[in-house]
């Protein structure tokens, strides 16, 4: 992974965490909850487990919604009522891929049953 993509991925992961307290990611072909980022490591818990462990950021891919998946109501809010900062926070809250990580191959498109 290029250094600039790694930086972008860390920035995105940290931005999404406050909204649900976790971010679902793919690690080793398994869905895990990303619960934090500390000292260069992404902190994960496996589903239905309380055990946490740290892994390198390059080894995870967050599940995100493409921007094109916005509902009509989400689009109305996004385009008509939000400042630039508000748009970023809105995307983070809704787990929308505003950094184009899916296109870069460093995130996975979230299946519809996950949102």
Largest sheet: 6 strands, mixed
Oligomer: single chain
Number of strands: 6
Class from helix and strand fractions: alpha+beta
* Mean pLDDT across all amino acids: 92
Low-confidence parts: none
N→C terminal distance:
28 Å
Number of domains: 1
Note the overall shape: globular
Proportion of residues in β-strands: 25-35%
Within the largest sheet, what's the order of strands? 4-3-2-1-5-6
Number of helices: 4
Q: What is the helix fraction of residues, given as a range?
A: 25-40%
Please trace the helix and strand order, writing H or E for each element: HEEEEEHHHE
Radius of gyration: 14 Å
Report on this structure.
The chain has one domain. 37% of the residues lie in helices and 28% in strands. The protein contains four helices and six strands. A hairpin with a 2-residue loop joins strand 1 and strand 2 (30-38). It starts with a helix and ends in a 6-residue tail after the last strand. The model has no long low-confidence stretch (mean pLDDT 92).
Summarize the structure.
The protein has 4 helices and 6 strands; from the N terminus they run αβββββαααβ. With 115 residues, the protein is α+β, with helices and mostly antiparallel strands. The two termini are 28 Å apart.
Key features of this structure:
single chain, 115 residues, alpha+beta, six-stranded mixed β-sheet
Give the helices and strands, then pairings.
Blueprint: H1 3-20, E1 23-27, E2 30-38, E3 41-46, E4 52-56, E5 60-64, H2 72-80, H3 84-94, H4 101-104, E6 108-109
Parallel strand pairs: 5-6
Antiparallel strand pairs: 1-2, 1-5, 2-3, 3-4
